[in-house]
Amino acid sequence: MTTGASTSPPSARPRRSRLLRFLPLGVAVWLVLEIWLLTAVAGAVSGFAVLLLLAGGFVLGSVVIKRAGRRAFRALSETLQQQQDGTPPRGRGSSEGNGLMMLGGLLLMLPGLVSDVLGLLLLVPPVQKGVSRYAERTFERKVREATGTFGGAFQQAQQARMHRPDGKVVQGEVIHEDTPRAHENLNPHPPLTN
């Protein structure tokens, strides 16, 4: 019999990603920057000019979102028509970049100059392709990391079953019998009667 405290590791909280840790601070800095830029521009030109700039950004953003939505719907309709006809799909074609175009339109609609500049940048095709490639690589890397994490968690669960709480390892072997033994009853349940 062993005495003393168990030496089990303390349960550690999973670490938050760097993005989630600094996201509230980033949003606060972005809001302060937007307000500061709007007041600086309003002081340099006029408040009416800033109001026209914000209204123009809203109108342009809604036009961009509407156009990207129509392109996405047209691409979906073409794909469904090709599937019904039995012809192989022709590839991405005109549907490429619709999500980033919609994001650019949304950024244009948000009040602020920094969001307007970012929205206009997302409407430029070379920038769209670069952001799309970066997002795809990041997504694939995260999927690979998550797959490795799940595999490690499974292995830890297997190891936890082999160790007793006091740290001793129980040696053993698992035997699976596919056929019942001859001396066992083949039908352990009595038949159902009315």
Summarize the structure.
This protein has helices at 18-44, 47-85, 98-109, 113-122, 125-162. It starts with 17 loop residues before the first helix and ends in a 32-residue tail after the last helix.
Descriptive report:
The chain has 2 domains: 23-123; 126-161. By secondary structure, it is mainly α. The protein is extended. The longest helix has 39 residues, at 47-85. The chain has helices spanning 18-44, 47-85, 98-109, 113-122, 125-162. The model has no long low-confidence stretch (mean pLDDT 78). 65% of the residues lie in helices and 0% in strands. α1 (18-44) packs across α2 (47-85), α2 (47-85) runs antiparallel to α3 (98-109) and α3 (98-109) packs antiparallel against α4 (113-122).
Descriptive terms for the model:
single chain; 194 residues; mainly alpha; 65% helix; 0% strand; extended
How are the secondary structure elements laid out?
Elements (H helix, E strand, L loop, with lengths): L17 H27 L2 H39 L12 H12 L3 H10 L2 H38 L32
User: How would you describe the shape?
Assistant: extended
User: What's the helical proportion of residues?
Assistant: 55-70%
> How many distinct beta strands?
0
* Uncertain spans: none
Q: What is the count of helical runs? A: 5
Structural class per helix/strand content?
Answer: mainly alpha
Listing every helix as H and every strand as E from the N terminus to the C terminus, the arrangement reads: HHHHH
Total domain units: 2
Radius of gyration of CA atoms, rounded to a whole number: 31 Å
Oligomer: single chain
Distance between the termini: 56 Å
